Give the backbone structure.
Amino acid sequence: MDKVLNIWLSQQCRILLGAVHAVVLTGPPGEGPHDQAIYWPDEGRDHTTLSRVAQLALRNQKAVVKTRNSIIETTSEPLDAMACPLFLGNQLLGVVAIEMTHRSEPMQ
């Protein structure tokens, strides 16, 4: 399942222009804990802020958007973080969270 999620996450981030990094947290469907992490890109990066947004979406079991959540250090460009729970049928499978360049509310 990790390989499928890794490919899926990579494809989503390529489709979504401005994606900087992302994480999928999974675990046993409907049970949790959802603490198995798959990162994109694989390179070492601080995922602390993105993981907090993901945890919030998991707890609330609904999408979360944090506008201007952080910045790209080299350019100071603002980043938005979005997280959405993943369901398989009625069971919570995990969450996907993506940090991307800032965009207007309708674009979010």
In short: The longest strand covers residues 78-88. Strands lie at 19-26, 36-40, 64-71, 78-88, 91-101. The chain is about 25% helix and 40% strand. The CA atoms of residues 41 and 66 lie 21 Å apart.
